[in-house]
Amino acid sequence: MTTPREAWIRNYVDGGFVDPDPERSFENLDPATGQLVARVHEADIALVDRAVRSARRALDNGWADTPVRERAALLRRAADRIEERFEEFVAAEMADTGKPITQARELDVARALTNFRTFADVVASAGQESFLTDLGGGRQALNYAVRKPLGVVAVIVPWNLPLLLLTWKVAPALACGNAVVVKPSEETPSTATLLAEVLEEVGLPAGVYNVVHGFGGNSAGEFLTDHPDIDGVTFTGSSATGSHVMKTVAPRVRPVSFELGGKNAAVVFDDVDIDEALAGLTRSVFANTGQVCLCAERVYVQRSIFDDIAAGLVERAEGLRLGRPADATTTTGPLISQAHREKVRSYLEIAEQAGAKVLTGGGIPDLGAELAGGSWIEPTLWTGLTNADRAVREEIFGPVAALIPFDTEQEAISLANDTEYGLAAAVWTNDLRRGHRVAQQMRVGISWVNTWFTRELRSPFGGAGLSGIGREGGESSLHFYTEPTNVCVQL
Ligand code: NAD
User: Fold this and answer.
1) Residue 5 Cα, ligand 1 centroid: separation in angstroms?
2) pTM, whole model, 2 decimals?
3) CA atoms within 13 A on the CB side of 18
4) Which amino acid residue places its CA nearest to atom 17 of ligand 1?
5) Which of 2, 162, 216, 336 is least surrounded by Cβ atoms within 10 Å, i.e. has the fewest?
6) Is 245 in the pocket of ligand 1 (CB under 6 A)?
7) Which SUPFAM superfamilies does UniProt cross-reference here (predicted)?
8) Confidence at residue 122, expressed as pLDDT on a 0 to 100 scale
9) What's the ipTM?
10) How far away, in angstroms, is 397 Cα from ligand 1 center?
């Protein structure tokens, strides 16, 4: 059976879409139903090479020297155009991920606009470092750093928040005058491709934004990171893949920015407003079906309120509405794929073998014939596990959490920090000083108090330990996406 031309997702190289090769393609499935969305043209090594060479040409042809205000204006036009085509992006994101329409609108696509607008503002108002050096004898030297684009940047992103995470990197990269070759996840190729149309419509020069589709090892991901002419890699994905990418780029000593996995803690003290904490905890455990790198899979609760929090979370988990993504009342979608569901299910078994008590969930829901082919799973909560158990140590990336009691503040801090990851933490307390004190002691890149996933895009974002290398956001993004030259003038 041949797939109609419009059902192809194509690579975008040097300002144009590439004719698909039916011999080199893979299926894009809707995880809510298991149905085919489109076929994706997998880029081979020659096409990835063309993409990198076209990015280099675009830099040399003047993009790198475009005045900052022009680049900022272009980013704003891109945001406006995404806004005009908003529902197309929502539909594409929904078909690729199965996420509920409300979330796609309010989080994923909404944030893409904010990413472009924020980095237009950030780059337009950025200054530069300068120092006057006292040389003695009344002489001075003036040092100032000029920032130049890093060059051709490889952008590799995962499937959980595809457009949000892509634009979080593409917007600052373009703002700084780089050219990018983007490799979206094989699970979610659509919105990166749609973005190519938008960037072309707003006048981005050919070659500045390229999209190559495919997988990781021995496919587009590796062809890209192993290409001798890329100047840096910005990667979001699992820690294992990050480590692999690091080895690939190591021989050429290229800068990397890594936003990797997490095994995040929530710490709930007994002075909280229980309802407020429960609302926040529910989001932090189950948002995007637990497939947010920042989600809490470890919930430490002070013993005197443990039973209340557990009962309240169970009630809220059972109140989540799994169902058709296009239904505005749906709160929770499927996992991204059958393979990922198998991984999450294996942890349900691992937890139960370790003696977990399943408070709710633990199985596969029956959502009727239409959704029977989807990769659905029940929101699941456990008690009875400790930090020694694999289900509490390893990232699962699903709608699951272990609830573990603690007695003292120090114990809570130790438990939360007892992990190789270091991405995020959330502290729930009404004690102002304790909130600051505990939040500061979390060994993570972002530590929330009485909130979760509240993002200020000008602040540094990233992780410690297995959760990443470097920070992006605001000035931190400008630092990664530029190479400074310090000029020293003796006065
Ligand atoms: P993944 O590591 O499997 O894949 C991420 C991307 O890397 C995909 O595009 C994939 O095709 C590509 N890739 C895989 N192997 C590669 C290789 N050898 N060379 C080059 N590219 C390769 O991750 P995933 O399953 O898509 O995403 C889930 C993971 O992402 C979770 O661990 C999650 O915590 C993490 N994540 C982190 C953040 C953050 O900001 N820290 C945000 C979202 C997701």
Assistant:
1) 29
2) 0.97
3) 25
4) 216
5) 2
6) yes
7) ALDH-like
8) 97
9) 0.98
10) 12
The set of residues, in sequence order, having a beta carbon less than 8 Å from that of 453 and lying 6+ positions away, is: 283, 284, 287, 292, 294
CA 268 – CA 285 distance, rounded (Å):
13
Per-residue pLDDT at 1: 41
Counting from 1 in the atom list of ligand 1, the atom nearest the Cα of 262 is 34
SS3 call for 94: helix
259 included as an active-site residue: yes
Structure tokens at 175: 């703002």
pLDDT digits (tens, 9 = 90+) for 61-107: 999 999 999 999 999 999 999 999 999 999 999 999 999 999 999 99
* CB-ligand 1 contact for 247 (6 Å cutoff): no
Q: What is the DSSP string of 402-416?
A: EEEEE-SHHHHHHHH
The residues, ordered by sequence, that sit 6+ positions from 79 with a Cβ below 8 Å of its Cβ are 112, 113, 114, 116, 117, 120
Angle between the N-to-C axes of helices 110-124 and 162-175, in degrees from 0 to 180, rounded to the nearest 10: 20
Q: Which residues pair with 111 in a beta bridge?
A: none
Place of tokens 């499937």: 159
Say yes or no to pLDDT of 314 above 60.
yes
Q: How far apart are CA 289 and CA 317, in angstroms?
A: 11
- Binding site membership of 259 for ligand 1 (Cβ less than 6 Å): yes
Alpha carbon separation from 208 to 78, 111, 128, 291, 474 (Å, rounded):
14, 22, 25, 31, 21
Mutate to test the pocket of ligand 1, among 28, 164, 211, 238 (most ligand atoms within 8 A of CB): 238
The Cα 108–Cα 486 span in angstroms is 38
- Cα(236) to ligand 1 centroid in Å equals 5
